[in-house]
Amino acid sequence: MASLTIRKLDEGIKTYLRLRSAKNRRSVEEEVRVILGELIEGREEPLTPFSAPPAASTAPTPQRTGAVPEASVTLIIGGGIAAYKSLDLIRRLKERRIEVRCVLTTAAQQFVTPLAVSALSHERVYTDLFDPQSEFDAGHIRLARDCDMIVVAPATADLMAKMANGHADDLASAILLATNRKILLAPAMNPLMWNNAATRRNVAQLQRDGVVLVGPNSGEMAEAGEAGTGRMSEAIEITAAAERLLRPPVPRPLAGKRVLITAGPTHEPIDPVRYIANRSSGKQGFAIAAAAQAAGAEVILVSGPVDLNDPAGVTVKHVESARQMLEQVQASLPADIAIFAAAVADWRVVNEGEQKLKKSSAGMPPLQLVENPDILATISKLTDKRPGLVIGFAAETEHLVDNAKSKLVRKGCDWIVANDVSPATGVMGGDRNTVHLITRKDGEIAVDSWPVMTKEQVAIELVAHVAKSVTGKSLDDKALEPAS
Ligand SMILES: Cc1cc2nc3c(=O)[nH]c(=O)nc-3n(C[C@H](O)[C@H](O)[C@H](O)COP(=O)(O)O)c2cc1C
After folding, report:
1. Whether 185 and 297 share a structural domain
2. Residue 155: is its pLDDT beyond 80?
3. Helix H segments across 72-169?
4. Domain identity same for 122 and 191
5. How far apart are the first and last CA of the chain?
6. So what's the pLDDT on residue 51?
7. Structural domains of the chain, count
8. Is residue 51 in some structural domain?
9. CATH number, residue 165
10. End of a domain among 246, 276, 291?
């Protein structure tokens, strides 16, 4: 018979087992036996660690909201008059899809009851370090680590003194000492306590230790006639501070930059119902627009006829023909960066039929073709409104890099993204792309060949290169992923 070592299981499974076993007041091994038994009997509990505790529990049955939590916080409520505001804080955090597990100090229970806190958090409330029911598997360590962050509100003078000096003689201080998570304190106390030299020392020490403070605010105190600094921040302010720590703002390397992008094919009319087109889907240009927008740029996308949704936060100008595309591109200048990813038709029909052309015994109507304006060359050679960085795309079916290099020189652009559009590659209309980035700096041409990637990845990589070139800073590509 095989044996199972819980310690060696995946972290996510271990966390799930710990939470579920704690909730059901069983050891982890016991819980695994129960799960296996239930699976075999076909009556397993729903796979959520937050399923309702057994009947013996004093906590109210959790009322799940249905929203999937995005983060979790252990909230320690200290023994101050502002503890009542923590009830609102629980609600606010949950509104922001942050799961809250609460710990009440002994003093806190003089101000708010575990029952109220449990009812609002929809979770069991923890109060005792020496609670045999939660300590059989070191519950205080779970509360310290099975969360993304610890919030202390109100952070009393006493709690901060204990923290600054490394005490661990109750559940709250033991958690604060045992955690490796970020800690956010919302101090609340009388102004004289806040300004006391001992509190000043403790606050300074905690800040040196990397603890983050929100507030306290100034204003009237609970004590009649007293005012000054010491009021706990409002729940909404603490929630915002928690969110800033949990979800640091995404870097916006292209903030303040205007990026002009073209995408898709152009349709060149033969008559009112027929046109010359190509197989471009517009996916690559749209992905670049989304990535540039995620990087903070103001994005104008001039698109030929495509079957794609406009990317969020991008100004899209829909056009049909090459001449309309050029017109909209020119009207969208000035721009800091221009990326011409559209597959613009090289030719158009000069003798376009005003009415639908008819079949006749005289044979096919003679279609006279004339060259379309070259958008990339036109914009690259501008003297006044030329964007600082002009990037073209080269779709080639042979001699890819060599053709792309000569295109770079011929058109006068700065970079070319060369992609092989031979039918075998499936690039035209497909979701993946293999590209070579050809750059020119001080007369030197460099070729950077990228592996096969999705068009979204190519877009993110290209925008990262653009941002580096424009700002001089390297970027983590992850930061540029458009929000899903
Ligand atoms: C009515 C009342 C209100 C209190 N308010 C505060 C307060 O706002 N801030 C504070 O630091 N201490 C306050 N205290 C003192 C704390 O309750 C006391 O220092 C306690 O030991 C703190 O416990 P804790 O470490 O569990 O937070 C108050 C005490 C009383 C009796």
Report:
1. no
2. yes
3. 83-95, 114-121, 132-135, 139-145, 157-164
4. yes
5. 46
6. 32
7. 3
8. no
9. 3.40.50.1950
10. 246
Separate counts of helices (H) and strands (E) for the chain: 16, 21
Average pLDDT rounded to a whole number, residues 298-317: 95
Residue 29's domain comprises: 1-43
Which helix (H) or strand (E) segment holds residue 461: the answer is helix 455-471
Determine if ligand 1 sits within 6 Å of the CB of residue 196.
Answer: no
Do 28 and 114 share a domain, yes or no?
no
The residue count of the chain comes to 484
Tell me the sheet residues that pair with 260.
Answer: 300, 338
Asked if residue 216 has its Cβ within 6 Å of ligand 1, the reply is no
Q: Letter for the amino acid at 234?
A: E
239/265 same-domain check: no
In a domain, 62, yes or no: no
Q: Residue 71 carries which side chain, given as an amino acid letter?
A: A
Nearest atom of ligand 1 to the alpha carbon of 108: 26
Q: Which of 56, 34, 58, 60 is nearest to 47 (CA)?
A: 34
**R_g (Cα) of the chain, nearest Å:** 32
Residue 57 lies in a domain: no
464 in ligand 1 pocket by Cβ < 6 Å? no
Ligand 1 pocket test target in 77, 81, 84, 159 with most atoms within 8 Å of CB: 81
Active site residue: 202, 278, 419, 433, which one?
A: 278
Shared domain for 159 and 75, answered yes or no, is: yes
Domain membership of residue 59 (yes or no) is no
Residue 82: CB within 6 Å of ligand 1?
A: yes
Give pLDDT tens digits for 77-131: 999 999 999 999 999 999 988 999 999 999 999 999 999 999 999 989 999 888 7
Q: What is the atom index within ligand 1 of the atom nearest the CA of 173?
A: 25
- Contact present, 47 and 13 (Cβ < 8 Å): no
Kindly state if the Cβ of 188 falls inside 6 Å of ligand 1. yes
Q: Is 117 left (phi over 0), alpha (psi -120 to 50) or beta?
A: alpha
Amino acid code (one letter) for 249:
P
Residue 278 designated active-site: yes
Q: Where are the alpha helices (DSSP H) in 275-373?
A: 283-294, 322-332
SS3 277: coil
Per the confidence metrics, is the pTM higher than 0.85? no
